[in-house]
From TrEMBL:
GO terms for biological process: acrosome assembly. GO terms for cellular component: acrosomal membrane. It comes from Eudyptes chrysocome (Western rockhopper penguin). Keywords: Membrane, Transmembrane, Transmembrane helix. This is Sperm acrosome membrane-associated protein 1. The chain crosses the membrane at residues 138-166.
Amino acid sequence: GIGIREVLLTSGCPGTEAKCIVRVEECRGPVDCGWGIPISEGLACVKMPCIYIPPENRFKYVWKMLIPNKTAHILPNDSAIMEVCRDTHSITFQCETQENGNIIASVKYTVYATTETETKKSRRIETGQSRRITTDAILVFVLLTGVIVTVGAIFAMILMILHWAVVKSIWESKSGQDNQDKKLANKSSLRNME
């Protein structure tokens, strides 16, 4: 394909420069550049560019409609950019960039049908909605669990406050029992010493 490259010099550059540009030149690579990305893509139409470098009018552009198992149909459009409106079925286009009768670059585009773009869009929306629903369900579960635990803790504290006397007597009886156990243990240890 066509492009621009910089020729660098790695020794003998002026001053203390380690690398310096000697010249900028046009370069050529493989002709088939594969599949391109449209300039703009809407629900109704698509704008597709050929491969070129300025000045654009230096090259000749041949647009073809590729039909499976048939010879490609050459289109009358000879500009670097072609706009195509979507049809009822997908169509593949190819643009060949020519210079002096030689093909120097080629790129292909598939323009999907209106129904296919709507289907893809609805799939993206459905996928997004199902993810959103799953996330929302998890958030609701976590929120409800947090609310239930908080309400339970508050309820337990309220019960403790309302029945403080009972709680206090239980603690006192336990501490009293602990004290009695300690006194008995001390008396038995004193007896053992005697």
